[in-house]
Amino acid sequence: MLRRAMINLCLALFALSVVVPLLWVLVTAIKTGPEIFTAPWGLPHTPQWNNFARAWQEAGIARYFLNSLIVTLATLAILLPIGAMAAYVFARYPFRGSKWLFGAFLGGMMFPLFLTIVPLFFLLVRLNLLDTLQGLTLVYVAYSLPFTVFVLTGFFQTLPQEMLEAALIDGCGHARAFWKVMLPLAKPGIIVVGVFNAIGLWNEYPLALVIMTSDERRTLPLGIANLLMVEQYQSDWGALFAGLVIVMLPVLFVYWLFRDRIHETMIAGALKG
Questions:
Q1: Above pLDDT 70, what percent of the chain?
Q2: What is the value of pTM for the model shown?
Q3: What domain count does the chain have?
Q4: Burial, 256: exposed, middle or buried (Cβ in 10 Å; 0-12, 13-18, 19+)?
């Protein structure tokens, strides 16, 4: 009982360390500037919902939000099919040199990001893709592919081989067996990988900072950083915290939408491991 009590206490403290800062940001987003400094832990006397309107329109969060949404969705649309096909080949069709190639993907996960920024910048300049949403999307696909292949390879390896053999006996080719049988079975893993990639891409800052040089094509993390510098001089801290809430809400919504599937997949992977 003592051990269980200690575990519950640790879990409760961890939950508080996550929930309390989140609630504080949400409450601060509807405060006036003076209230933020005079009563940082108190509730607002009158909720200032216009903070969100100023952040959305005057600070340009709407434009940054749309850019991030386009880039994230486009990246996932390209990344997930390519990553699933590559992972399936590594998991089910080993060939000479496949382990070395898979190791190269793993190396991409460990390669320091800052070492790629300068050559990546000049490559995009030569391809006329610098400061474009298309260029940032292609960079994000390459940036996220190692993690996607690594996770999905392990997931495809856990799928029953009998399902593939039955599909081949019934007359399916290898490609059709992948799209019609194996890929639907891997849907939980693809959803989990998609959610984690979406969260990472939504909050990605260094690559976007180097590639997106014009204000109208900035993504949301760049817009929030710019908003922070602007609001420091205008002392409009309510709009700044409202902008932070706007950044967090899509991530929280996506995680809440797929929370059961994420938990089931992670538990299943732990049990199989």
A1: 93
A2: 0.84
A3: 1
A4: exposed
